[in-house]
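User: Predict the structure for this protein chain, please.
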Amino acid sequence: MTKPERTRDDADATEPEREAKKKRNSFGEELEVDTPLYDRAAHPPSPCGPYDSSSVTEANGARVEEMTKEEEEEEEDLSSFTPKSPIRKPYIPDELSDPTVYPEIHAAFEDAHAKYIEKLCRRTALFSSKYRRKEVRSCLFNDEHLHPIREAAKRAVLHAAKSVIRLSSSLEGEPLTNCCGLWIDWDRGSKTGTILTTAHLIRSKHPEEDHWIGRDEYDIKANVTVHLRDGTTAQGHYLYHQEHYDLAFFKVRVDEEVQFPHFNGTVHCGQDVFRLGRDQSMDLRITHGRVEYWNPASIERYHYMYFLHEQDDYLCDDDGGPVIDLEGKVVGLINNHLSASFVPSSILEKCVGLWTKFGCIPRLHLGMRFDSMRLLDPVNVEKMWRMHNIEDGLIVEEVSKDSHAEKRGICFGDIIECFNGKRISTTIELENMLLVRCKDHFDQGNKLNAKINVSIQVFHPAERLRRTINLNVEVSDHGEIITKGTYPITATEETSATVQSSQNVAGLKCLAAC
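Assistant: Here is the predicted structure, written as structure tokens:
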């Protein structure tokens, strides 16, 4: 191959410039080549062939004659890179296999084999090595039922995972719990990130499963450790927690900008979703499931929704992790991994907005618990329509003792059809209405622990009567407590109480039969 003719630039070049051109030929002989320099942004490489130097104008040629500082540094980095020697496994040819005849060959082989093993071990220790990968595989790898949505789900999971972190807490040196959380803010000036997680992270006592009793205790002085994605940890600093929604906020110093999640304000029963978390090694946990068609249990908050999964392998076992849809958007935050309940995103967004604006998450305490008619068996819904001409609303499951609702005559079995003039079908809708009303209350300059009036439309099935009731309720950021309607029995009332109890039992049996 003939050497190309030297250009005028080559002829005019000084000796150091020619030496610099030689150095720019990486991993090969020092060949002096005639490679035209040009503006890479203005003239990207053509897919049809090499760049045509004749297309460079005189002005452009004058401008690109000298390499930029960045290009020089890039070239220096390339020239300073030393390629690793290939990993080759040594062996002894068959004709030299007798160690008694060729002892030197075998001694050399032992030395070479030891070096081979040492080099191999260094490479297998890299994070990219197959020997370092998780043996337990996620549902997106081994569940054949997910083939139709696997690619979309994989993109969604990897996008959402960037905002998921792990936290741990301790109290007086003793481990308390492990949780997951989400980045929701990062301040560039102070290098401080804000984390949304579950209040369970600092829950020091949980004596009762019934959330409406209000006996849980929280310690805001608990030591919180934030496990960052690069394997380092940082101290988490308490900002605020809200017991009713099981939410807590912490701030932490983090130098690198974090990625925030996107929320989807709607989530519906039967929807394909994924639950994300991180294990103690910070490895991602992925569980596929669907939003369950359930009313919350009587001991749980009525704004919960539920994650139904079919497989138990590699299940996320921490509270505070997100539930995401196939677009990678957060539709809920797990608040109890045992019952797989989660707080839906429509409520999460309002809670975050209230805390950001007002420094607290206020809520109206109505003094009642509900079930949604929409989540009942259609057979039961049809029966209510047939007997009472009603097929939508919230069924009152319990009324708190001495509450204003009890004083206004609302009882177990009544149906709430409207709140402040708007029809309601689910407890999620009601909870969102309560939060919006609280925002209006604070926007008007009012504070916590105030009393405000709300209007509800109630249908009384026993009387077949529909009426509108004004309730005077409290604005609070504590967990709502429902006090059961009990009273003490005295000796003189024992006989009558026994008779009354028998009548109640008979009535309950009758209800069960219906």
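The two ends are 98 Å apart (CA to CA).
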